[in-house]
Amino acid sequence: MARTSRLSGLRSLAPAERRAAVAAELGIGTDDLAAFLGGGIDLPQADRMVEHAIGTIGIPVGVATNLIVDGREVLVPMATEEPSVIAAASNVARMTRATGGFTTTTTGPLMQAQVQLLGVADVHAARARILEREAEVLELANAQDPRLVEHGGGARRVDVRIIHGRDRTHLVAHLVVDVRDAMGANAVNSMAEATAPLLASIAEGRHLLRILTNKADLRLARARVRIRPDDIGGPEVVANMLEAGALAHDDPYRAATHNKGIMNGVTAVVLATGNDTRAVEAGAHAHAARDGQYRSLSTWERDADGSLSATLELPMPVGLVGGATRSHPAAQAAVRMLEVTTADELARIVVSVGLAQNIGAVRALSAEGIQRGHMGLHARNVAVSAGASADEVDALAARIVAAGAVRADVAERELAALRASR
Ligand code: MEV
């Protein structure tokens, strides 16, 4: 276990030195993190993963420091192309250390598959008939995945929903399945396909769609954290953050951006571990709209001592077995770095990073504004786009920032000036 995630000074190290520092902290060999080099997979591996493969695309992986989740120090690999994200998560995680970091809960790994039933004359009676034969449906579902059942998982329950829609009434059966350490899509989809004919015959209709729902609201992960006012910029910053949080609850236009900030952290960890980023994103946004209006996923309050008291809850359908998490060497290295052995532990870390990311973004917006922190790194990207060579990037980025406008035309002008001065 990492003795501490408080690795200060990483910024001034070269990437190879950072890998060595992280490996030393985790007590593993630097070779264990070598999979992060060169994109993590070779072409033959890519070719086995998708159809018509022609190559791979590299995304930077950085390490978020300072995080404590349920008392455990965690070093978090984050895959993202966006500057400032990893720094912001690390920065907020540092602010939370004085109060013990993040505390999490989960509901357990329950995924749901839907079976759409059509042509049913008596939907209420059909619902009753299906529920009468629940045991038979569950037995058939579980016969599809004996290994899952051996590991303590399996189909647990059948729900039947009657939905009164725009121009018709729908009948949909849900299989609720404990998928243990899998993301679970394959397991529940197979069960839905296998049980659909039985469900249709009980309903005296026919079946159509047989697929999981990404509104994975029985598989929630929650994190909470407190930050003392002095650690986050003072009482005025906390007050401004509460104003920002209130707008994100009430206004969908702000909520979408607020939640995007959360997903900056969530998606980066989900991607680094080879999990399905779209599944997690679909679940998050469905959860944000669960009361009929799209709202912020997090809540912010001031506790009795004046500290910022923040929570985040969202569906977290991530797994450790199957899929790219098993087959992608960089994802395996990410899992090793996180020192997680269950999907549940991974979910707890992801939701904590999401909350840290959210607080970091809105803290910056409520204090100095987002651009100051963003611009240093953005300037480096603009410098590279303007044609700066590796030994010119830092000097050009500094000139662009000093010029007060991080733009392509300014970068080109300053690059010419830099070259003339050398
Ligand atoms: C940028 O990627 C994310 C933010 O827009 C999030 C927010 O506004 O809360 C900064």
TrEMBL record:
Presence of the UniProt keyword Coiled coil in the record: no
InterPro entries (alphabetical): HMG_CoA_Rdtase, HMG_CoA_Rdtase_bac-typ, HMG_CoA_Rdtase_cat_sf, HMG_CoA_Rdtase_CS, HMG_CoA_Rdtase_NAD(P)-bd_sf, HMG_CoA_Rdtase_sub-bd_dom_sf
Known EC number: 1.1.1.88
One Gene Ontology molecular-function label: hydroxymethylglutaryl-CoA reductase (NADH) activity
Keyword set, alphabetical order: NAD, Oxidoreductase
UniProt key word NAD: yes
Reaction(s) the record says it catalyses: (R)-mevalonate + 2 NAD(+) + CoA = (3S)-3-hydroxy-3-methylglutaryl-CoA + 2 NADH + 2 H(+)
This protein's pathway: Metabolic intermediate metabolism; (R)-mevalonate degradation; (S)-3-hydroxy-3-methylglutaryl-CoA from (R)-mevalonate: step 1/1
GO biological process, one term: coenzyme A metabolic process
Any Pfam family: HMG-CoA_red
Gene3D superfamilies, sorted: 1.10.8.660, 3-hydroxy-3-methylglutaryl-coenzyme A Reductase, Chain A, domain 2
Family: Belongs to the HMG-CoA reductase family.
Listed name of the protein: 3-hydroxy-3-methylglutaryl coenzyme A reductase
